[in-house]
C-alpha cells in the first residue's frame, strides 16, 4: 500500500510496483501500465518544480521534443502528465544500473570502459541536441548502464534555469556558476568531468568553493593516461568557445584518440568491460543513498491530496519517433505495436474453421494482403522512416530520414546514419541505386554499399526498412495471425523460416547475417498497417526473446509522393 500513491496521487492508468530512486527533482517509481501490462518508470516531480510555472513552461516544450527522440543511448520519454494533483514524467523502464552505482562499487573503470561510456553518452546528447534539448545537469546518477554496456541518458532538462550548477556541482561548467544558461558546451563539460571520474575514481574538482575551482583551478589532465589528456583538456576548457563546437566534433576526437591508443577494437573491448562492471555492481548490495542535493525553495513532499483524477494521458506505445521501442524484457511484438486506447482484444480466430492446407497456421492468407500493400504503397511511394537494428552479435545500425520508391521498387534515401566503431558518429547520407553518399564538410564521399562501416550499415538499413522486406516476411510466413482492426490500423504477427528469407532477392544478406550470428531457424515478426494498408511500424527478431538474438524495428509516417533523390557530385 505504501507505493499506491506518491505525494497523494498516481498517474491514472498505472499501478506502482516499487520505488526505483529519489532525488532533488522527485521520486521515481517502477509501474505497470494497466492496459498493456508494460513496465515503465514514472518520475513524480517535486512540489517545488510543480509550483514553478517558468520551469513547467520550459519543460513542456522540452518534453514534446524529447518524445520524438529515438536513440539507443537515451531513455525514451513517453508522456508528461499534469493534473491538479501534480506532474509526472512517464518514461521507458531502462534495465540496468546507474553509473554512480558502478563507480561507488567498482571505483575507476579503466580507460577502455571510460571511453565506451563517454562515446555512448555523447551519442545520447547528440540525439537530444538535434531536437534542441540540452541536458543541463549531467551527472553519473542519470547515466544508466544496461546489460549490453550501453550508456543511456535520462533526466533531461529537469533542473530549473539558473539551478543547473547546484544540481550537479562537481560537473558544472564555469559559466553555469556565473548564471549563464545551459548549452551544448555545458553538456560537453559535464560529460568530460564524468569521463574523468571514470578514469580516476573522483571528479576533476572537489572542495568547498566549487565555483572558484571550476573557474580557476588548473585542468587536471596529467592525472589520466597520456593518450586521453587532450580529450580532458578540450572538454574541460574554461572558455566554452575553446571546447569542441559540437558533439560530433568531440566524437571524432574521441574516435581518433581511442584508435590511436588502443586499436580499432577499442569500442568492443570497452563495452565488454563496462558490461562486466555493471553486472558486478548490480550483484553487490546497493550502497546507502546519498542525501539529495537541495534546490533553493524546495518544499518537502507531503502525502496530502486526492488520488489522481481527470487529465488526459496521450498513449505512448506508438508515438511518431518511438514507434517500436522495446520497453521491457517481456514485452511482446503485439504490445510494442499497439497504439490504440481499446483494451487488448481476444486472439483473433482463424478466418475459416476449415482453412486451406496452403494457408499459414492462424488462417490468414498473405497473398491478397501483400497485393493490397503493394497497391497502397504504389499510390504513395515514399515516407518518413526510422530504423534500428540491435542485438547480441555486432552489426548494429540506426537511421532516420525519408525514402522514395523508384519505378523498379528500389528505395532511395536521404537520412542520418550511424553504426558502431569507426561508423559510430551520426552522418548525413544519401542512398541512390547501390551507392552510399556521405556528407563530409562541404563534399560528398561515395562508396558502394556493403563491406564495413557506413556502407555496411547503409546496406542493412536499405534492406531492413524496405517494404519488400515486410512483404517477403508475409509471403514466407508459416504462422500468421491478425488482430482485430482498430482506428489506427491492424497488426499482423507471425513467423517465417530463416532459410527461405535468406534466399529472398534484395533482403537475403541481412537475414543471412542475423541467422548466422544467432543460429535462428525461424524469424518472428509483427507488422502494423494503417486502414489504407500502408505500413506504419514493424518488429523482427532472429533468436529467442531472452537470449542470443538480433532485432530490427522501425516506423513509417507521412506516406506520399516524394521527389526522387538525386545522386550528388562526389569528390
State the helix count. Answer: 17
Taken as a percent bin, the fraction of beta residues is 15-25%
The top-level CATH class of the largest domain is: Mainly Beta
Principal-axis shape: globular
**Radius of gyration, CA atoms, in whole angstroms:** 24 Å
Q: What's the count of strands?
A: 19
Structure explained in plain terms:
- The chain is of the alpha+beta class.
- The protein folds into three domains: 14-92, Phosphorylase Kinase, domain 1; 97-283, Transferase(Phosphotransferase) domain 1 (Transferase(Phosphotransferase), domain 1, Orthogonal Bundle), CATH 1.10.510.10; 333-557, outer membrane lipoprotein receptor (LolB), chain A, CATH 2.50.20.
- Helix content is 31%, strand content 22%.
- The chain is built from 17 helices and 19 strands.
- It has helices at 47-50, 53-66, 99-106, 111-129, 164-167, 174-177, 184-200, 210-216, 229-235, 247-262, 266-283, 333-337, 366-379, 453-464, 467-476, 498-502, 508-518; strands spanning 14-23, 26-33, 39-45, 77-83, 86-92, 97-98, 143-145, 151-153, 382-391, 397-405, 411-418, 427-432, 435-440, 443-448, 479-482, 490-497, 522-529, 535-542, 550-557.
- The strands form three sheets. It has an eleven-stranded antiparallel β-sheet. Strands 1-2-3-5-4 form a five-stranded antiparallel β-sheet. Strands 6-7-8 form a three-stranded antiparallel β-sheet.
- Helix 3 crosses helix 11 (266-283) and helix 4 runs antiparallel to helix 7 (184-200).
